[in-house]
Write a structure and sequence with these properties.
Layout (H helix, E strand, L loop, with lengths): L15 E7 L2 E9 L19 H16 L1 E11 L8 E11 L2 E10 L2 E12 L3
Antiparallel strand pairs: 1-2, 2-4, 3-6, 4-5, 5-6
Amino acid sequence: MTGIPAFAAPLRAVDTLDVRASGDDLELVAQITVDGKEPNLRGHFPGQAVYPGVFVIETLEQAMREAVGARLSTVRSVRFLAPLLDGDRMVLTATAKRTPDGWDVTGKATLGETTTAKIRASFEEAAG
């Protein structure tokens, strides 16, 4: 991705996105490097930038918007297991399964071999 997509402003939560179709399902790999100089990270926490958990969810939202134009409707479960700090490269892998109402998505964020978050969420097709 280059620049900040209009739907992402003012926060860009995806640097690169790879999407593969697997039958009716999708496999997504979104990556972002945590930039401690990012204005949205000021104060979270002073002297040691921590990528907020809600930004991990935003990464999934932006990946689904970019891939299929779907919008987050429900976070079914989320667990934050390890912090992401300034300079860390998060890799969010997700499987999106088509449903009559949109998509059920299961994702896992990692830093190297460490799982930093697990997410299950539902997405609906964006209007228009």
